[in-house]
Design brief:
The complex is a heterodimer. The termini of chain A are far apart. Chain A has two domains: 37 residues, no CATH class; 111 residues. Chain A is 57% helix and 3% strand. Chain A is mainly α. Among the domains of chain B are: 145 residues, no CATH class; 33 residues. Chain B is globular and about 125 Å long. Chains A and B meet through strand 1 and strand 2 of A and strand 42, strand 45 and strand 57 of B. Chain A: Pfam families: EMC4. Chain A: It comes from Umbelopsis ramanniana AG. Chain A: One of its GO terms (cellular component) is endoplasmic reticulum membrane.
């Protein structure tokens, strides 16, 4: 949290709408002065340029998050390999995790990306859209689920073969009765 | 080369390891033996019985010689012979038997232990084809043997030869008998002369066999059997005269039979005279004759005594309508006569003194056992008598009190059937509810009714808990009190009424109903060591079959039909009995009462009786079809209106087949309705047995069998679909000349041959062929001479598996299976070397057929071997099992192991096994097994282990204690934790 808050202290975004605005400024604090100072330090005429910077940063961060699951895929694959195809408590746990985590991640997708939503003018910028990163994130989670399905199949738990439907087959009707 | 062999040994090692991991065999522990299973050893009904040193030595009609404990009736030892016994004699420490066959076998047994000392079919008497004719024990302990060539051979007790005497007999001389008197052996021959017949007597020296004397007695007895040697006297009957000769003198004394009071002035048919020797050491003999008065045969009998040269009357038995039986022991003659329906009179007469005949009364009703068949006076002081009745039971009386009995009728079982018992609570609780008609009462009404009956049962709840709890307590204590087996083998007394028994929770308790060829129907409890529940006797009936026609349902008792033949009348009889108490079952429905009589006696003797899968609507019993081959007519039983209409609906799909009288063909029939509703069988197909060949075995699936899965799942999760045709049966035909055995699978409806395989080098003359059929597989056992390369000279068991298609997942695409479809199964077969010869074969049956079946082989060595179907599997891999094989649970190919663990009968010897029947319990894992023949043996079998029952080792007390300890711990630690939490809040 501390890292994040350090990062997010950006005087450029200190607007009157921010949280702090509800609290009266300390005595002798000149808000305008502070803003002016920061603007001077960035040596640029603020607004457009600063917003752009912020937007690309957010987009990069969003991409980092979106690619996160890709790193875990090899690890999961190794775990699948290691746990074998037998139906034991360990392999069942791993398989359950393979389904549980991606599904959870998919459902909390918008929350995960909420903080990268562009604000202000950047909202309309095409580069600011999180759609592609969200889609990537979703796809990677689906790949993880795919791994899980592969694992379940390897364990022989998917009803894909004829033997799985054998019990539901009706017996043949015998047309004649024969006694010997 | 070395490497290769090394590799093979590794394979072997892996194979054996795998096999041991799979653990197909499982045996009983020592303390489990005889707890749930029981083995009753039988001997059959005695034909001769004598007592010596507290043992009763007996020869029975089941060809058993046995020694029974005189005080308890337990078997001390017994020997089962292959042939009936013609002659039996004993001295103090040995006994011998001569079998009744063309070349009789003489066997000498050690009497205290029952061990065979020696046996011989031929004695060394220089002649080629002389058979053993007669033998006696000499006072020296040696055995003197008379052969058909007239020679005498003396053998010692151990079989060594002392001396022999070989006379030169003319062709008109036949040897009759031999006897020992005062240290001399007398040989009696009959000589048929031109003018007169005579008996030739040779007197031999016991020590060396030198002829010391020789004389002739002029005699012409009608029959050689009428010449008897009674304690040193030759006695024979000649034209209404008894002639005697004291051996050693040539005098003949003659007494007219008419002079005896009993035979006086009665027109006795001279052919019917017979002499019976009563006891080896006494001078008494029984003379019987028959005369006819008012077209009724009457038996006349008297006990006579040879005294010097005179024959005197000892006991006049007179004429009696009831048969009587006479026995002698030392100087006492005893006769047992029926006095009234419920009493027998024992007459005792001391022959030396002139004391009056003593009488004692034995209370015994003839209703349950029939008349006396054999009677033996075992000892006089104290008075012990052994009585064998017509039903096959035997009883030992001390004076007039019953000491013990043996239900030997069970040695003559013709057929057996398991009958389910009713559930106790169902019986009482739901009795009224069945009478409700669903249409008349609304579901709410019925629900209220049910609630009411449940509430009415509420007061019984504490009792129910108590019984439950006591059951647990018993299990905890693990105390088992067993009745000795010999007590459960006893016959029921006259006064005993059958006790009502109910089913247990697991359906392990059933009734075994057996019908015997002695005319008895016996019901045994599968628990309590096979105790008799009830027994019924029908005089003159030879039972052949028993069929359970109705299972126990609410309010209705289970019913059986016992089918037999009345020997005297020459009729067929069918008895419908209540399986719970053996009473004849009368229907309460007056409208069908006439055609639903419990006893049906008919002059038409059905060739075969079939059980049909249809019920008649009135009493809900299964309909039986009776086929009479003589008239080709088919009758149904019961012949009620309802049964007829139910049968006519079923008629078009009913087919049956029959092996014809001389086993030259199998014929298939269909039943057609003819003139005025009469049913006749019309031939559909015919399967001829080739000339020179014989039909050796037949096998068909049990109609009650349930199949759990329609296919067989392979390691790769594909399926081989089973060809499940209940109409299929297997026939084994042997050609002894070519030494081949052909197994044919036939469809019973159309008679089409589905598969045929010929095995070469099969010996069917000395070894039987046995077939077992279940689900989609056929197992058969035979002897192979092994002349073909690669085949073993051993017993072999082959398995044929039938599948719908040759490949995986292949199926015949139709919803039905008919004999007229042109469908042929694909066969997979394999053969395994089998360690034993087989007498009979059975297959376990479980409730839903989920458990792997087990083939039960009744072996020649009187054991029962259970071989899992996984052993008899055509898919057992010959190479190293790969992953898929392992997945499928296949065992590497190998012979059927000779594993003691696989014996159901552990150390018991189930003698004379003829059949093994099985029935399912309510537990899917368990099958009930009953083997009969001479002995009866019952056991439970769990072919796939008891997966649905807690194992014996499961520690119930530990579980209960752990639960209690946990509850206590929760109560103790709960407040502690709460306090601690409060304390932390204050900090």
């Amino acid at each position: 949290m501390s890292d994040k808050s350090k990062w997010s202290v950006d005087f450029a975004s200190l607007e009157s709408t921010s949280r702090a605005s509800s609290i009266p400024s300390p005595v002798g604090f000149d808000g305008n002065w502070a803003i002016q100072n920061s603007r001077e330090s960035s040596k640029a005429s603020r607004s457009a340029d600063a917003d752009h910077n912020d937007m690309t940063l957010k987009a990069r961060r969003a991409w980092d998050v979106a690619m996160g699951p890709a790193k875990t895929i090899p690890m999961n694959a190794i775990m699948i390999y290691m746990s074998g195809t037998g139906v034991q408590i360990f392999s069942v746990m791993i398989t359950a995790m393979l389904f549980w985590q991606p599904i959870k991640a998919i459902f909390t997708l918008n929350q995960t990306f909420e903080r990268f939503e562009p604000t202000g003018a950047a909202k309309n910028h095409p580069e600011a859209s999180l759609l592609t990163s969200k889609a990537t994130f979703l796809a990677l989670q689906l790949v993880t689920i795919g791994l899980g399905i592969y694992k379940v199949n390897a364990m022989g738990l998917l009803p894909t073969t004829t033997s799985d439907w054998l019990a539901f087959m009706p017996p043949k009707q015998i047309m004649e009765y024969f006694a010997i | 080369m070395y490497r290769q062999s090394n590799r093979i040994s590794i394979w072997l090692l892996i194979g054996t390891l795998l096999a041991s991991c799979i653990q197909i065999a499982h045996a009983v522990f020592e303390d489990q033996a005889g707890v749930l299973d029981w083995h009753h050893a039988w001997i059959g009904t005695p034909e001769i019985a004598t007592e010596r040193n507290g043992l009763i030595y007996t020869v029975t009609s089941r060809n058993v010689i046995a020694a029974l404990n005189a005080s308890t009736g337990e078997i001390e030892w017994r020997q089962l012979l292959e042939r009936p016994v013609a002659s039996f004699k004993m001295n103090d420490d040995a006994l011998f038997t001569i079998t009744d066959e063309k070349l009789p076998l003489l066997q000498v047994w050690d009497s205290p232990s029952g061990k065979l000392l020696w046996q011989d079919r031929k004695v060394d008497d220089l002649s080629k084809d002389a058979a053993i004719l007669d033998a006696v024990f000499l006072s020296t302990g040696d055995v003197a043997i008379l052969t058909s060539s007239g020679s005498v051979v003396i053998r010692t007790k151990d079989g060594g030869q002392h001396w022999r005497w070989v006379p030169e007999l003319s062709s008109s001389t036949t040897p009759v008998s031999l006897a020992e008197v005062d240290g001399h052996v007398y040989v009696i021959n009959e000589h048929k002369g031109v003018l007169s017949n005579s008996l030739q007597v040779h007197k031999l020296d016991t020590q060396h066999g030198i002829v010391q004397d020789e004389y002739k007695l002029s005699a012409s007895p009608k029959d050689l059997d009428l010449v008897k040697v009674i304690n040193g006297h030759v006695v024979w009957i000649e034209k209404n005269h008894i002639k005697t000769n004291a051996l050693g003198s040539s005098d003949i004394s003659t007494v007219s039979i008419d002079s005896f009071e009993a035979f006086h002035s009665k027109a006795i048919i001279s052919d019917t005279y017979a002499i019976t020797i009563l006891d080896q050491g006494s001078n008494e003999f029984l003379l019987t004759g028959q005369f006819i008065s008012d077209e009724q045969p009457y038996h006349v009998a008297a006990v006579l005594k040879v005294d010097g040269n005179a024959v005197k009357l000892t006991l006049n038995l007179g004429t009696s309508f009831y048969s009587h039986t006479v026995s002698a022991h030392g100087n006492t003659v005893a006769a047992l006569q029926r006095q009234s329906k419920n009493t027998l009179t024992l007459l005792l007469k001391h022959t030396k003194s002139d004391a009056e005949t003593a009488k004692s009364i034995i209370e015994h009703s003839s209703d349950h056992t029939g008349e006396v068949r054999y009677f033996s006076l075992l000892s006089t002081v104290p008075l012990h008598t052994l009585v064998v009745y017509d039903d096959g039971s035997m009883r030992l009386y001390h004076g007039s009190d019953l000491a013990w009995s043996r239900e030997e009728s069970l040695a003559y079982i013709a057929d057996s059937e398991f009958v389910d018992l009713p559930e106790e609570k169902l019986w009482s609780q739901m009795a009224d509810e069945t009478s409700e008609v669903p249409e008349q009462h609304s579901p709410i009404q019925r629900y209220i009714h049910r609630l009411q009956s449940d509430i009415a049962k509420l007061p019984e709840l504490p009792q129910w808990f108590l019984t439950r709890f006591s059951g647990v307590m018993e299990a905890l204590q693990k105390k088992r009190e067993l009745t000795p087996v010999y007590l459960s083998q006893q016959s029921l007394n006259d006064s005993e009424t059958p006790s009502m028994i109910y089913r247990d929770n697991f359906g392990l308790r059933k009734l075994i109903i057996s019908v015997t060829s002695t005319g008895k129907v016996v019901a045994q409890d599968t628990q309590n060591q096979g105790k008799l529940i009830w027994a019924k006797y029908y005089p003159n009936v030879q039972f052949e079959q028993v069929i359970s026609v109705r299972a126990a349902t609410v309010k209705m008792p289970p019913l059986i039909v016992a089918i037999g033949r009345n020997v005297e009348e020459g009729t067929m009889v069918l008895y419908r009995l209540n399986a719970l108490d053996g009473d004849e079952y009368y229907t309460e429905d007056a409208s069908i009462a006439e055609s639903f009589d419990p006893i049906l006696e008919t002059p038409t003797i059905a060739t075969k009786v079939f059980t049909l899968p249809v019920q008649e609507p009135d009493e809900r019993t299964q309909i039986l079809a009776l086929y009479d081959a003589g008239t080709t007519r088919v009758y149904i039983y019961p012949d009620t209106e309802g049964a007829r209409s139910a049968f006519s609906e079923f008629l078009p799909s009913f087919y049956f087949s029959l092996v014809n009288k001389d086993s030259t063909a199998i014929k298939g029939y269909q039943v057609v309705e003819g003139y005025r509703g009469s049913l006749t069988a019309s031939a559909v197909w015919n399967f001829d047995v080739p000339k020179g060949s014989t039909l050796v075995a037949l096998g068909s699936r049990s109609p009650h069998e349930k199949v759990a899965s329609l296919g067989r799942v392979l390691g790769n999760r594909n399926v081989l679909y089973k060809y499940l045709n209940p109409n299929l049966f297997a026939v084994a035909i042997a050609d002894p000349q070519a030494q081949t055995m052909t197994l044919t699978l036939l469809d019973g409806v159309k008679g089409s041959v589905l598969y045929q395989v010929t095995h070469e080098d099969v010996d069917t003359i000395h070894h039987d062929v046995h077939i077992g059929t279940s689900e989609n597989w056929i197992v058969y056992h035979y002897w192979s001479n092994g002349a073909i390369r690669g085949s073993a000279k051993a017993y072999q068991v082959s398995v044929l598996e039938l599948y719908e298609g040759s490949g995986e997942n292949e199926r015949i695409d139709s919803k039905s299976l008919s004999g007229y479809d042109n469908q042929r199964p694909h066969i997979r077969a394999d053969t395994f070397v089998f360690p034993y010869g087989v007498r009979t074969l059975g297959i376990t049956d479980t409730r839903n057929g989920v458990s792997t079946r087990e083939v039960l082989f009744g072996l020649n060595n009187n054991q029962i071997l259970g071989v899992s179907r996984r052993m008899l599997d055509s898919r057992r891999p010959r190479e190293k099992p790969n992953k898929e094989h392992q997945e499928e649970g296949l065992i590497p190919y190998g012979p059927i192991p000779d594993e003691r663990k696989m014996f159901l009968s552990y150390s018991l010897e189930v003698l004379g096994m003829e059949s093994i029947i099985t029935a399912p319990a309510l537990l899917e894992s368990t099958s009930l097994v009953f083997a009969y023949g001479l002995d009866t043996f019952f056991t439970y079998r769990a072919p796939s282990r008891q997966f649905d029952v807690l194992s014996e080792e499961f520690n119930k007390s530990q579980l209960l204690l752990t639960i209690v300890a946990l509850v206590v711990a929760i109560f103790v630690t709960g407040p502690m934790v709460r306090r601690k939490r409060v304390n932390t809040l204050w900090k």
